[in-house]
Amino acid sequence: MHLVRYQSPAGRPVVGVRTGDTVAPVEGIASMAELLRLPLADLQTAVAKTGTAVPVEGLTWLPPIDGRGEVWCAGVTYERSRGARMEESTEQSVYDKVYTADRPELFQKAPAWRVVTDGEPVGIRVDSGHDVPEPELAVVANSHGEIVGYTICNDMSSRSIEGVNPLYVPQAKLFAGGCALATGIRPVWEVADPKDLAIDITISRDGDEVFTGTTSTAKLVRELPDLIDVLFVPNDFPDGVILATGTGIVPEFAFALREGDVIRISIDQLGTLTNTVATGREPFAFLAAQNSEEKR
Predict the structure, then answer these.
(1) DSSP helix/strand/coil, 191
(2) How confident is residue 86, by pLDDT bands cut at 50, 70 and 90?
(3) CB atoms inside a 10 Å sphere around CB 57
(4) Could you tell me if 14 and 183 are in contact, meaning their C-beta atoms sit under 8 angstroms apart?
């Protein structure tokens, strides 16, 4: 099962439970934010109470985050990520140090209204020139700091901007279309070992595969509860938070995304996330134009 958001025939967002080819609304829950305010035990009870299931065919899926929800990211949590950051950077030592430091690198990626989902475009900056996707396991935590589920994140990144100076990380990471989440959250009670999941990515260009990669969350050097604990020390997340846990797949330095590339990420037990690359702000004007509560 997956916890999802989709549009009703009337155009309003609905929180539902998707099982196979059907989805059923969660009774008495109007938003994902409302669901993520609940303690884990109450959340599990809430999603067990669903209405009439309908076929998923033809439904419009929405990102699995809304309200005051936020997406954050952890960086340099895989050995491959450390190597790639050092390769591109003029300040290599900072990445080597943070890989083994007690304190992880954490940064805010996007508020709920900036997030795109499966089938929507992801963005690259017009002033970058060297951009890559970062396929990541994302941990979903409720407002109480409990891990309640997992999903897939594409943490889009500008290698050229970050490579000039690590202080440019916010510009390399925060931009229109820079954060994509899969449509579904797999509940924590259905994933036996989140540190034993295969992650795969395929990038296609004009119908041909131009990059493939694979890794496993077993290579993640941080413990997932520890990352959430550090995130919650200075912050409240009243509508929950999703933390992408870093990438173990980075293309060789010669590779860069182009407009029209199709990125497909899959993680065992969680599903897939597919997006097509677009350039600049304009393709994402719809995110700013629509009311996050009523339409997304």
Answers:
(1) coil
(2) very low
(3) 7
(4) no
Alpha-carbon distance of 105 to 169, in angstroms, equals 11
Q: Round to whole Å and give the CA distance between 243 and 36.
A: 14
User: How far apart are the C-alpha atoms of 295 and 17, rounded to whole Å?
Assistant: 19
The DSSP bridge partners found for residue 19 are 22
Q: What is the pLDDT of residues 34-61, one digit of tens each?
A: 999 999 999 999 999 999 999 999 999 9
Spatial neighbors of 234 by CB under 8 A, at least 6 apart, are: none
Nearest to 292 by CA among 66, 52, 36, 56: 66
* Closest residue by Cα to residue 183 from 62, 60, 55: 62
Residues shown for the chain: 296
Kindly report the CA angle at 76 between 116 and 191, in degrees rounded to 5? Answer: 60
Which residue's entry shows tokens 């449509």?
183
Longest C-alpha distance within the chain, in Å?
A: 57
CA-CA distance, 64 to 44, in Å (whole number)? Answer: 16
Angstrom CA distances, 135 to 25, 44, 90, 192, 262, stand at 29, 28, 24, 21, 13
Residue 35 dihedral angles phi and psi, to the nearest 5°: -65, -40
The token pair that represents 191 in the structure block: 């994933």
Residue with tokens 């992880």: 104
Q: What is the pLDDT of residues 206-243, one digit of tens each?
A: 999 999 999 999 999 999 999 999 999 999 999 999 99
CA-atom Rg of the chain in angstroms:
18
Spatial neighbors of 233 by CB under 8 A, at least 6 apart, are none
Task: Say if CB 214 and CB 200 are below 8 A apart.
Answer: yes
Alpha-carbon span 251 to 15, nearest angstrom: 36
